[in-house]
Specification:
There is one protein chain. With about 200 residues, this protein is mostly helical. It is about 85% helix and about 0% strand. The chain has 8 helices and no strands. The termini are far apart.
């Protein structure tokens, strides 16, 4: 990792943006493989751009702010580090976690051509469930990150954990969009006729 550390010294935001873009783009590729779809490079590009230009720069400055507000000395005991880390983890997930989930839903919705009211309704219906799932991932990950990972490498650690998380989010949003499309294109009259035909056969 020494080469990565050297490059970080010269262009921290650029390097973190590139790594976030690669990892979030990879998450979308994995999602498409799981769904057994032909590769849609535009979708992967949207994920990568969101990671590179939104997630990574924000995370870079956010970690700097947290470290300046409540610095954690790596030489301190684990108990001391944990006590100073827990308030940061709480604020991080309640504020930044919520922001990132909303941003991801919004980005994917705009890419799919959804209107803002549609995106808002999808968020209202699904945000609480997704946020609760995140409780099993991000607080523990951030405790490890803030207690043990040196400041320059925290965004990279965040991105690596985010590979699985963003694959989950991509699958969730894709499933919701498909379900909404099927509901919108369903023909109630055709469904009624099919049900009548089944009843007659019985």
């Amino acid at each position: 990792m020494s080469w990565y550390g050297r490059v970080l010294l010269h262009s921290p935001v650029l390097v973190k943006g590139a790594s976030a873009g690669i990892i979030m783009g990879t998450a979308d590729v994995i999602r498409q493989r799981i769904e057994k779809r032909p590769w849609e490079w535009q979708s992967t590009a949207v994920n990568a751009l969101y990671g590179a230009f939104c997630v990574a720069p924000f995370a870079h400055y956010w970690f700097l702010l947290m470290e300046r507000t409540l610095p954690v000395r790596m030489q301190a005991t684990f108990r001391e580090r944990l006590l100073r880390t827990l308030p940061k983890v709480t604020v991080d997930y309640c504020f930044v976690g919520s922001l990132m989930i909303s941003g991801f839903f919004t980005t994917r919705g705009l890419y799919a051509g959804d209107t803002l009211p549609q995106i808002g309704e999808r968020l209202r219906n699904n945000f609480p469930a997704v946020w609760k799932v995140g409780l099993f991932v991000w607080p523990a990950a951030q405790v490890i990150n803030l207690c043990f990972v040196p400041l320059p490498f925290r965004v990279l650690f965040l991105n690596l954990i985010g590979l699985c998380w963003n694959t989950f989010l991509s699958l969730r949003v894709s499933h919701l969009q498909l379900q909404e499309w099927e509901d919108k294109t369903a023909d109630p009259e055709l469904d009624r006729l099919m049900l009548d035909e089944v009843v007659q056969k019985e």
